[in-house]
Amino acid sequence: MKTKLIFLTFLLFGLLSIKAQCNPTITSPRLGLRTPNTILFCSDENEILSTQAFGSYQWYKQEWTWQTPNNNPWVAIPGATSQQLTLNGYNDQLFYYKVEVTQGDCTAESQAVFADGYMYGLPAMMSTYTPGTYQEVDMGVVNVCKGASVKFDNVFPVVYENHTWFKCVPTTNAPFSGDPCVVTGVTGDTLIATESGKYGFYACTEYCPSQCELLDPFSFVQLNFGEWDFCGELGTGETKLKDNNLKVYPNPTAQLLYIGKETDKAYTKVTIFDMFGKLVMQKNDHKYNQPIDVSGLTAGNYIIVSVAVNGTEYKNRFIKK
Predict the structure, then answer these.
(1) For the domain 20-117, what is the CATH superfamily, name and number?
(2) Is 108 helix (H, G, I), strand (E, B) or coil?
């Protein structure tokens, strides 16, 4: 009887051991290097996902969305039934991945990992003007008072590193020696413009230095500095100022965010990006007195881009607590 009890004990521990081993995890060379459970890899490279050895495998993917919860279905990847899965930088980003395995009578799924593509979003530029010193005369064309300045920023400085700034639209995407459009001596993500020109930039990603992007020429901004009629002078010699800022409040916020004022009435589109350039929220036909619920966003800094019904575009930063 004692021998049978010992045998049954060893058998039970053996079965428990088999069950304990049916617990798949996903590994890859760059998983979690920047963000937990996230893989960042360059668009011209592949990344290999692996799991432990089991009896059988089936890999699944789910398309990313800014909505919470993510209601996109998990889809079995055809032919992905081995211990490893190779992801392609051009086609397989902005998806979640998991693997289902079997071992004996045990079936289990791994935790999902995310193949992120925010490092490769197209660049965007923010223009900051001193109220009262400028007048937008057309889309992307602004008259600026002589002696004032305009600040240009790459909206996603975390994504990009080395910059080349232009004061006219270049003839080639990549800058070349002697290019008359290049603003010499400025390689950061900010430029202060004090003379007329058509401004934009070319920048290389920090994570993938070989991947560089030119701001869409349609997004270049034409500045015309001069003595314009609206450039009145006060007795102190200071330029007259008028309120032309978009109100964003409360800032910081933990849940609800409001934008604009009663005189603005409505916005055709409101878009929110995180500081890595990832689109996290978008609303159409937004009224100034309607709250935007940002409670689902993680704490941090964000860019909110609002387009008024008259076509004016505002870019503001806010902090999610």
Answers:
(1) Immunoglobulins (2.60.40.10)
(2) strand
Helix (H, G, I), strand (E, B), or coil: what is residue 12? helix
Res. 163: pLDDT tops 50: yes
Q: What is the pLDDT of residues 36-50, one digit of tens each?
A: 899 887 777 889 999
Residue 206 corresponds to which amino acid? E
Distance spanning both ends of the chain, measured CA to CA: 65
Can you tell me the distance from the alpha carbon of 36 to that of 116, in angstroms, rounded to the nearest whole number?
A: 11
Among 65, 71, 67, 62, which residue's Cα sits nearest to residue 98? 62
Residue 199: both structure tokens together: 């401004």
| Selected residue with higher pLDDT from 282 and 121 | 282
CA distance 189 to 205: 12
- Name the pLDDT band for 133 (thresholds 50, 70, 90): confident
Average pLDDT taken over every residue of the chain: 83
DSSP-H helix ranges across 192-283: none
For the chain, which residues make up each domain, given as ranges? 20-117, 125-226, 248-320
Phi-psi group of 294: left, alpha or beta (phi > 0 → left; psi -120 to 50 → alpha; rest → beta): alpha
Pairwise CA distance, residues 234 & 58, whole Å: 73
Q: In this structure, what token pair is assigned to residue 24?
A: 């798949």
Alpha helices for 33-176 (secondary structure H): none
